[in-house]
Amino acid sequence: MKKIFLMVAILTTTLVQTGFAQHDHATHKTETPALLPLYYSIKDALVSGNANLASSKANELVIALNTSEAKAISGSSGDELLKHAGKIVESKDLKIQRENFANLSATMVVLAKNFQLSNEPIYQMYCPMKKANWLSSSSSVKNPYFGNAMLTCGKVVETLK
Fold first, then answer.
1. CA-to-CA distance for 90 and 81, rounded, in angstroms?
2. Would you tell me how many other CB atoms lie within 10 Å of the CB of residue 152?
3. What are the residue boundaries of the structural domains of the chain, listed by start?
4. Whole-number Å distance between alpha carbons of 150 and 48
5. How does residue 5 score in pLDDT terms, banded at 50, 70 and 90?
6. pLDDT by residue (tens digit) across 7-30?
7. How far apart are CA 155 and CA 7, in angstroms?
């Protein structure tokens, strides 16, 4: 009986390691769970100044980040994403949410540069007033850090494909 368990454990370990080795192939470019659309929905809620919606969408991101597939892809970045998304969930204050969104965005930018998060172009934007980046599916600037107060403040700094 012990030999069977040992054999199953060895086989499982081998398969998991092989899966991860294939997963990291091609300079870490791979399809990921729907993290980017969830991130975009938080961004859009902050652009419109809707703290309740931002909190709700951040909660959806937290749930997605807790899946085994997302954990395998995001690795240590996942902890940072969870931390900042969790703070957005907990707060109903737009200023606090936007501060945490800046940190969330910094981690998402790194993830987007290392993994294929989308088949569509991803635009890395920069806000000079906030001195922070964010990601967008559109090249038109809609600033999540200041909303209607400075909706078009920012510029595209890189297009990730």
1. 14
2. 10
3. 30-160
4. 12
5. very low
6. 444 444 444 443 443 334 333 444
7. 56
What integer pLDDT is reported at residue 67 of this predicted model? 85
Q: Quickly tell me which residue has 């769970």 as its tokens.
A: 33
- Record the pTM: 0.78
Task: Give me the amino acid identity at 5.
Answer: F
User: Pick from 159, 83, 82, 88: which is nearest to 122 by CA?
Assistant: 159
For residue 30, give the nearest of 67, 65, 69, 76 by alpha carbon: 69
In the prediction, which pLDDT does 76 show?
72
Residue 26, token pair as written in the block: 């091609």
* b/e per residue 2-35 (b: at least 16 CB within 10 A): eeeeeeeeeeeeeeeeeeeeeeeeeeeebebbbb
